[in-house]
Design a protein that fits this description.
There is one protein chain. The protein is an all-alpha fold and about 130 residues long. It has one domain. The protein has four helices and no strands. α1 runs antiparallel to α4, α2 runs antiparallel to α3 and α3 packs antiparallel against α4. The radius of gyration is 15 Å and the shape is elongated. The protein starts with a helix and ends in a 6-residue tail after the last helix.
């Protein structure tokens, strides 16, 4: 149980860093450059995804023995694309549909997608030993 809690804490720290990257890029593109919210949100998500993969597989999740790094990355990306669809859908619904400010919508989406990300990565990518 202690190992799982430590793993969740590491995931949380990396998640905060990835979220700062994600929000920073979304805000720069949406508010700074005037790009559409979905383009800005997707761009931030993709750049933070790359950081998150590299950091998560190094510090949070143990490599699954017998799985190539290529396959691991593909699974990570597929799970993340599903997460992106959830993230975009939530942001769009809350921002355009309910009129919430973009950052408030993004905070809600991020919280929900974070739970999805941890559970699916643990199930599909985690090796036998918890880091």
């Amino acid at each position: 149980m202690q190992k799982l809690l430590a793993q969740i804490m590491k995931f949380g720290v990396l998640g905060v860093i990835a979220t700062v990257i994600d929000f920073g890029i979304m805000n720069l593109l949406h508010y700074g450059l005037g790009l559409n919210i979905l383009i800005a949100n997707t761009s931030g998500f993709i750049i933070s995804l790359i950081f998150n993969y590299l950091a998560s597989m190094k510090y949070v999740f143990a490599h699954k023995e017998g799985m190539s790094r290529r396959r691991e990355f593909i699974i990570f990306v597929v799970l993340s694309v599903i997460g992106l669809a959830l993230n975009d859908g939530i942001v769009l619904t809350l921002n355009a549909g309910l009129g919430l400010e973009a950052n408030i919508a993004k905070i809600c989406a991020t919280a929900l997608v974070m739970v999805y990300n941890f559970v699916t990565r643990k199930v599909f990518l985690e090796g036998d030993e918890t880091k």
